[in-house]
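agent> fetching stored inputs for the NDP docking request
agent> found them:
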Amino acid sequence: METVTLNNGVEMPIIGFGVFQIPDTETQAAVEAALAAGYRHLDTAASYGNEEAVGAAIKASGIPREELWVTTKLWIQYAPTGSVEDNTLRAFEASLTRLGLDYLDLYLIHQPLGDYYSEWRAMQKLYAEKRARAIGVSNFHPDRLVDLIENNEIVPAVNQIETHPFHQRRVDQDLMGERGVQIESWGPFAEGKNDLFTNPVLAAIGEAHGKSAAQVVLRWLTQRQVIVIPKSVKPERMAQNLDIFDFTLTEEQMAQIATLDTGASQFFDHRDPAMVSWLNSRHD
Ligand code: NDP
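agent> prediction call returned; pasting tokens
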């Protein structure tokens, strides 16, 4: 399994399995199938409501803990009269309990919203106590990321952001590279929006290599050293999405994919006031 080296020297698998929007009742079977297909890196979140099912699949698999990479994410902590730091420590323990683990490989702040400076201070403690092998953030635009870095001791190891052919994030990736933050893609297929799976540019490149548009996307991202965590509930697609390391895209093909960038989200903007309000309404 190919890995990338994070800013603390830890090796993180470049491909993993995402479980967003897999119903809780179906998650255990999906994760068991993904582990059987060869995935060793799992990406969940407290807000997905399926950490327990992910944990059950890990346990059922019998795979030694040290062979797995498990990421989960902290949802926005609401404590207007209390301590967000304390809440964060409690939320971490609750996630670990649900997952049935005694440490995490990666713990991420899910959204750049609320008092994430206090959340980060708590995460730094968890990292110092070796409860998480790496800590990072998600959905941080460059300005927020730099501000967090400038005001804290530990530089996030990872920033997990929407990254796919229609929103390529090259400027973000360059900035993160300068700051020692590893880019990780969420929604590598843009969840199929904009007809990604039948896009003529991706399909033609795939045909040249005997691969699908989905495989071309994952290869394009991993050739850019972007970590990917595709989601599928179908075992044949799980296997297909892992089978991307036996071909290489040419510079010309990389340049063709670069033309697909729209520079905009296919989902929503984390700076849209209505979205900020909606995300904040989803407190624990
Ligand atoms: P993806 O871009 O991974 O797309 C998933 C969709 O693509 C599903 O409908 C799946 O269908 C389909 N699909 C998967 N593989 C193939 C294939 N080979 N051919 C055709 N269709 C395929 O979307 P996600 O939003 O799930 O993103 C991936 C992961 O990123 C999430 O699961 C989550 O872990 C993370 N994430 C993080 C966010 C954050 O805020 N930090 C936000 C969103 C996601 P089917 O299942 O039927 O195969």
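agent> quick read of the result: The chain has a mean pLDDT of 97.
agent> awaiting further instructions
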